[in-house]
Specification:
283 residues, two-stranded antiparallel ribbon, six-stranded mixed beta sheet, 20% strand, Frizzled cysteine-rich domain, alpha/beta, elongated, OB fold (Dihydrolipoamide Acetyltransferase, E2P)
Length: 283
């Protein structure tokens, strides 16, 4: 899973091309390989799109994939609808752009993710460029599932501390001081373009579950890696997969913060003893 937005950002830093509503356009089927927008809710798109791309194979499909990592962070539930309304605008009798208000809610949630990686919100997605609500445009959905709001969410944070060969007491104190503790096997590899990517292999195991949910935790930690790329680059070494003990807390605003990371090597008997003692340990 690719994790850098460099190509996409380079192509989006130039001002948005003036789109002539009177120009000749054509409708094409959204191809299956265009994964970012394949399940957006409609099957045909208009070319040229609102970014001025007219060649499906050379421009539209490859550049759409540049945005997949941002969408995988889950930065906003309507980020896909917003981006695809520009990349693959729905083919109707009239042009439907995203409303300014939709741009604003997506930007406010997703710009911090880009900022976490040292990138500004692209100039081409300046929300002032898009029409106001009273015009015909794609507006934000009024209702979002309230249950999803209550789940912990990953966010940009200062990198957690990493402690090699910790003492048993250190590990147990970390379990006591934080909301949750899990073990996870993290792997670092490279894409065909040479960019690093990070994955969680196998299942995440709970030591202390706290507010985390079993079905959501692996996805949550994967999103954390995607958002905190610079931290991931320091924490996860290249090569073979490494088992880690991760401890952290859920902040008052609902965001998850990792606090301590213990690489768990076979020789680290203290970590093994601490995890066994934890079941009966009193903080």
């Amino acid at each position: 899973m690719a994790v850098f937005f460099t190509v996409a950002l380079l192509t989006m830093t130039c001002p948005l091309m003036a789109f002539d509503m009177s120009q000749s356009t054509r409708c094409v089927t959204i191809p299956n390989r265009m994964k970012v927008c394949k399940d957006v809710g409609y099957s045909e798109m208009r070319l040229p799109n609102f970014l001025g791309h007219s060649n499906l194979e050379v421009e539209v499909v490859p550049r759409s994939e540049d945005w997949r990592p941002l969408l995988q962070t889950g930065c906003h539930p309507q980020a896909q609808a917003f981006l695809c309304s520009l990349i693959a605008p729905i083919c109707l009798s009239t042009f439907i752009q995203p409303c300014r208000s939709l741009c604003v809610v997506v930007r406010d949630s997703c710009a911090p993710v880009l900022a976490c990686q040292g990138h500004p919100w692209p100039e081409a997605l300046d929300c002032d460029r898009f029409p106001a609500e009273e015009d015909m445009c794609l507006s934000p959905q009024a209702k979002i599932n309230h249950f999803t709001k209550d789940l912990p969410k990953p966010a940009c944070q200062n990198c957690p501390s990493v402690e090699e060969a910790p003492g048993m007491k250190t590990v147990l104190n970390s379990f006591c001081q934080h909301d949750f503790a899990v073990t996870a096997k993290l792997h670092r590899s490279r894409t065909p373009l040479g960019e690093p990517e990070y994955d969680i292999e196998g299942r995440v195991q709970f030591i202390r579950q706290g507010p985390l949910l079993p079905y959501d935790t692996q996805h949550l930690l994967q999103q954390w890696l995607l958002i905190n790329l610079r931290c991931a680059d320091v924490l996860v070494r290249p090569g073979r997969s490494q088992l880690y003990v991760l401890t952290g807390s859920v902040q008052p605003d609902g965001t998850l913060a990792l606090t301590c990371v213990f690489p768990w090597h076979k020789k680290d008997a203290n970590i093994a003893v601490a995890t066994r003692k934890w079941k009966h340990y009193r903080c």
